[in-house]
Write a structure and sequence with these properties.
CATH class of the largest domain in chain A: Alpha Beta
CATH topology of the largest domain in chain B: TIM Barrel
Number of strands of chain B: 16
CATH topology of the largest domain in chain A: Rossmann fold
Strand content of chain A: 5-15%
Order of helices and strands of chain B: HEHHEEEEEEEHEHEHEHHHEHEHEHEHEH
Shape of chain A: globular
Oligomer: heterodimer
Largest interface: A-B, 26 and 35 residues
CATH class of the largest domain in chain B: Alpha Beta
Structural class of chain B: alpha/beta
Strand order of the largest sheet of chain A: 2-1-3-4-5
Distance between the termini of chain B: 17 Å
CATH architecture of the largest domain in chain B: Alpha-Beta Barrel
Order of helices and strands of chain A: HHHHEHEHEHEHEH
Number of helices of chain B: 14
Number of helices of chain A: 9
Helix content of chain A: 55-70%
Structural class of chain A: alpha/beta
Radius of gyration of chain B: 21 Å
Number of domains of chain B: 2
């Protein structure tokens, strides 16, 4: 492994934003391609963050500051990646369902998805089924992710899936769901394509659905 | 106390269980206020309960009425507060007196959907933050405005916040509490609540979860200073509660092991609980905590806190923590108050699955002490007949 890429990984794993950005600049200066820096430096580090999280070594704070460092490095790379036509793994629209203002889980999922190399369209909170449908209709979305923290708002996940079916868009997009009261069994019942219990597994799930 | 043949009141059952005595039946007591408000708002109150007050519904189904109240208020000296709802000023006071700063439940409107802005003006600077309430929250009965921005957003805000806390004056309202306690009556239990412990206060109210984690990493000194200021206030408040006559008090921490992970818990939470519980135990009070989050990561650590009760314990499938693992781990305490997930009261759960779950739970419990309740509260779409069934099942089986 290239020493500079290793430094990028270390900076991300430690959540050191400034160092991550400096190492990305150094990598670019040394002639490494933006794609290699992205995949072998930043995304690779976030994959390790996900593994550490799933093993209980990292918790949400470590995940957050790592994701922030990754994002800082990515911001430097983004214009260069656009020039070289490097494509994201996929495009995911995320939102907390109508009637629900909880956004922490959704935001963590968003960070881990970006860290895994996805482009994320964050629709925010209190998102009505028709907004999800319009977003899918506008095209380019591979996966729709919905979050709910209340048992009273979970039915809006089914309402959204039903609205996608009604709009004949269901086949165009994979649907994943999550949130404290949500279970795999509920995902199966409402016809979602997947359920993830946490942000790290949401990223793994998204990758598996597009592979 | 009742004679052996008379049935005990729900309050007697709760008190006996809290104090380590054996009640005649398992106390079954929790909240149905979300259900009640939601059904009324939706016009879906079952005929049997139409026109009944909340305590009357509790009594009709044999489910104890749990409620909460603060036995004190806090006067915030040298502070001016302005509340604005959707641009219209609704409250303005100098030296305001609250029970729950900065959440201000009871002051933020809960009958109309919209955004409330709170401004706090002090000689040490100004803070502002926002609550939002959705129409759906009103119709579902969960009328709790969500804090969508927090008082501390910048480093300068720490000073202002600390100023407010340092100029807070404790005002006992014990007589008001006793009066409310009497109003709740024997079929209920009014839980005297205390504000959150410092770490939870910062995490949930003052800064917000994600920003707290950034602050811990980026500005640990400011974080620690605020923690110390809050700790001094809580310590002082708890000492003053010596004059408050209550067998049980409860922190309102909404503890969740996903956010307050074991590392943070051991560093910031465990030592605080141990000290606070010592103070309250010296006053002869049992101590509980509102632990309605996912406790999976904290099961073994909670055992060491000194807490006597984990109230609102919500098991799987609503959280990842099973009743069985907690039951096994907490043989030496803390006592569970809760233990049933509202999931089992939903229509999507078949009658046979519900009945099987309740029988399994009651067999597991046997004669061991517990205060049974619906950990995450009975929701507006829940089947109240199932709550009635549990109440009757317990009533027909003396301990």
């Amino acid at each position: 492994m290239n020493e500079i890429l290793e430094s990028i990984q270390t900076a991300v794993l430690k959540g050191n934003l400034k160092d991550a950005q400096e190492q990305v600049e150094r990598a670019l200066g040394s002639g490494l391609s933006p794609a290699d820096i992205l995949h072998e430096g930043l995304i690779s580090a976030m994959t390790e963050v996900g593994r550490l999280f799933e093993e209980g070594e990292y918790y949400v704070p470590e995940m957050l500051i790592a994701a922030r460092a990754m994002k800082g490095g990515l911001a430097i790379l983004k214009p260069l990646l656009a020039e070289t036509d490097v494509q994201p793994l996929g495009k995911i629209a995320l939102g907390t369902v109508k009637g629900d203002l909880h956004d922490i889980g959704k935001n963590l999922v968003s960070m881990m998805l970006e860290g895994a190399g996805f482009e994320v369209v964050d629709l925010g909170v209190d998102v009505a089924p028709e907004i999800f449908v319009d977003t899918i209709e506008s095209g380019g979305i591979d996966i729709l992710g919905m979050s709910a923290l209340l048992t009273t708002t979970m039915p809006l996940m089914k309402a959204t899936i039903d609205a996608l079916v009604q709009a004949q868009l269901r086949d165009q997009v994979k649907v994943i769901i999550g949130g404290a009261p949500v279970t795999q069994s509920y995902a199966d019942d409402i016809g979602a394509d997947g359920y993830a219990p946490d942000a790290s597994r949401a990223a793994s799930l998204a990758k598996s659905l597009l592979s | 106390m009742s004679t052996a043949r008379e049935k005990w009141t729900m309050r007697q059952r709760v008190l006996a269980t809290l104090q380590g005595r054996k009640p005649d039946r398992i106390p079954f007591i929790d909240r149905i206020d979300f259900w009640y408000k939601g059904r009324n708002h939706q016009g879906k109150m079952p005929e049997e309960f139409q026109g009944m007050s909340l305590p009357e519904v509790h009594r009709a189904i044999g489910f104890g009425h749990q409620d909460w109240d603060y036995p004190y208020t806090i006067k915030y000296r040298n502070a001016e507060i302005i509340l604005t709802f959707e641009g219209e000023r609704i409250f303005h006071e100098v030296d305001p007196e609250f029970t729950n700063f900065p959440t201000l439940w009871g002051w933020i409107p809960i009958d109309k959907a919209g955004v409330t802005t709170t401004e706090l003006i002090t000689p040490a600077g100004k803070l502002s933050y926002h609550h939002r309430l959705l129409e759906e929250s009103i119709s579902s009965g969960t009328t709790r405005p969500q804090m969508i921005s927090h008082p501390i957003k910048e480093l300068d805000d720490f000073n202002t916040y600390e100023y407010i806390i340092e100029h807070a004056e404790f005002i006992p309202r014990y007589q008001d509490f006793y009066q409310r306690e009497a109003e709740i009556g024997d079929h209920g239990y009014l839980v005297p609540i205390i504000e959150r412990i410092p770490f939870q206060h910062i995490l949930i109210d003052a800064i917000g979860e994600i920003e707290t984690f950034y602050t811990l990493h980026d500005s640990p000194k400011q974080f620690q200073r605020l923690l110390t200021v809050l700790d001094e206030q809580v310590t002082d408040k708890l000492k003053k509660l010596a004059d408050f006559s209550a067998p049980y008090v409860e922190f309102t921490d909404n503890l969740d092991g996903f956010m307050t992970n074991p590392r943070l818990f051991q560093k910031y939470v465990l030592p605080a609980y141990q000290r606070y519980c010592d103070t309250l135990h010296d006053q002869g009070k049992k101590v509980g905590d509102h632990t309605d989050g996912d406790l999976k990561n904290l099961v073994h650590l909670l055992h060491d806190t000194g807490l006597d009760v984990c109230e609102s314990f919500t098991p799987a499938p609503t959280t990842s923590c099973t009743f069985e693992e907690v039951w096994e781990a907490w043989q030496g305490g803390p006592l569970i108050w809760g233990g049933i997930a509202s999931y089992y009261l939903e229509q999507r759960v078949s009658d046979s699955e519900f009945l099987q779950h309740i029988e399994h739970l009651l067999q597991l419990i046997g004669k061991r002490p517990i205060i049974l309740g619906v950990g995450d509260a009975v929701m507006s779409d829940n089947d109240l007949e199932r709550v009635r069934y549990i109440a009757e099942r317990i009533e027909n089986h003396p301990l």
